[in-house]
Amino acid sequence: MSEKNGFMKALKCRECGTEYPLEATHVCEFDFGPLEVVYDYDRIKKSLTRESIASRAKSMWRYRELLPVAGEPTVGTQVGFTPLVKADRLAKRLGIRELWIKNDAVNYPTLSFKDRVVSVALSRARELGFDVVACASTGNLANSVAANAAAAGLKSYVLIPHDLEQGKVVNSLVYKANVISIKGHYDDVNKLCAEIAGKFGWAFVNVNMRPYYAEGSKSMGYEIAEQLGWQAPQHTVIPMASGSLLTKVHKAFQEFEKLGLIEAGERHIHGAQATGCNPIAAAEKSGLDFFKPVKPNTIAKSLAIGTPADGFYALKVMKETGGHAEDVTDDEIRDGIRMLAECEGIFAETAGGVTVGVAKKLIESGKIPANDSAVLCITGNGLKTMDAIQSHVGQTREIRPSLREFEALLEAEKKTAVA
Ligand SMILES: *Cc1c(COP(=O)(O)O)cnc(C)c1O
Ligand SMILES: [Zn+2]
């Protein structure tokens, strides 16, 4: 292999194994299978050790050999290495011995895990010579493409379904991205983007750049393993939209094992969806290895993909690892958001409510045994989905700036508490 590709060797079809050059292309021309980046693990093993990683800056790029760019990354160099928080109070509430929160609600710069995939996709897009970047988004991806493109001086087009939360729309417009609202669901947006990508020669991060883009999600898994003291969790609960993040966190643990950075061990990967858009969870619960597309209707809009591109592979990972899927209603999503906030002081978006709600169900049903340890992946920030929760968090109590009124308020509260 040539140095000009860094540690990458080729793109390879996941179905038939045909190899392709490292260009902006994503499907096999023989069977339409998805293409994936192949690496030179022998070379990686020589330069990526626990010591070399620990000596590097605290961002997702400390695992740079395992990320698909040829040279040094140029976009999003500060992304990642978000906190892994020991969540003792939430553990008690959910009835599990040990619990951790991987908190991508505070990822840089746009407060969701999507900064990881965008950092990779835009760095690679630049290497391949693109100057216009674009995406089909359920919201967070639009925010991240818009922000990172602005910082990199790239022109961007982000296409979103018309019914997104205001928080996510404003968070794209402010960066002066071209924000196009499509009258339809995400699946309609995605289909249109495939057509545009074919015609205009732009770098669509999750269409023609998808093999590179998707690899960025692995960094969440690498960080979890390093932050746990070089071991993978017994259980990881991951929200699923296309199902890509789930498959990539699993791949991250496998690669770390292959490189001798962690030991082999049982690690169950569980998937979380909203009941209003649960194609993958419904299939897993019925023991099927394929899903039926659905029309989404849920407050968890970031997860509202009715035809998940990686659904088939996500089901396979859960089956192979002895993991399970569950789904939760809108009310259970809000309960999940409040539980995480009240117990750990972390305000997650609706997808986080899905993850917490599903973890609760999996623990209650014994699918995650109470004596085990689990990591919950919190992937987005609650400030972006205020619409979903604002009328469900109680109200402020208003008084004049008077000590007497404040005392009266406390007195009245005492009385209602006793009554
Ligand atoms: C995009 C997204 C996910 C999951 O994405 P996949 O398509 O399954 O990789 C999870 N949480 C949030 C907040 C997201 O924006
Ligand atoms: Zn193929």
Topology as a string of helices (H) and strands (E): EEEHHEHEHEHEHEHEHHEHEHHEHHEHH
Structural class of the secondary elements?
alpha/beta
In the CATH scheme, what's the topology name of the largest domain? Rossmann fold
What is the overall pLDDT average? 97
Q: Work out the radius of gyration.
A: 22 Å
The proportion of residues forming helix, as a percent range, comes to 40-55%
Strand content: 15-25%
User: Unreliable stretches, pLDDT < 50, 5 or more residues?
Assistant: none
User: Main β-sheet: number of strands, strand sense, barrel status?
Assistant: 6 strands, mixed
The CATH C-level class name of the largest domain: Alpha Beta
**Measured distance between first and last alpha carbons:** 77 Å
Specify the oligomeric state. single chain
Would you count the extended β strands for me? 13
Give the strand line-up of the largest sheet: 4-5-13-10-11-12
Number of helices: 16
Gross CATH architecture of the largest domain:
3-Layer(aba) Sandwich
Total individual domains: 2
* Bound ligands, each once: pyridoxal-5'-phosphate, zinc ion
- Overall 3D shape: globular
What does this structure look like?
It contains 16 helices and 13 strands. It has 419 residues and is an alpha/beta fold. The strands form three sheets. A six-stranded mixed β-sheet has the order 4-5-13-10-11-12, with helices on both faces. A four-stranded parallel β-sheet has the order 8-7-6-9, with helices on both faces. Strand 6, helix 5 and strand 7 form a beta-alpha-beta unit. Helix 10 crosses helix 12, helix 11 packs parallel to helix 12 and helix 13 packs across helix 14. The longest helix has 16 residues. The mean pLDDT is 97. Bound molecules: pyridoxal-5'-phosphate and zinc ion. The site of pyridoxal-5'-phosphate has 17 residues, from helix 10.
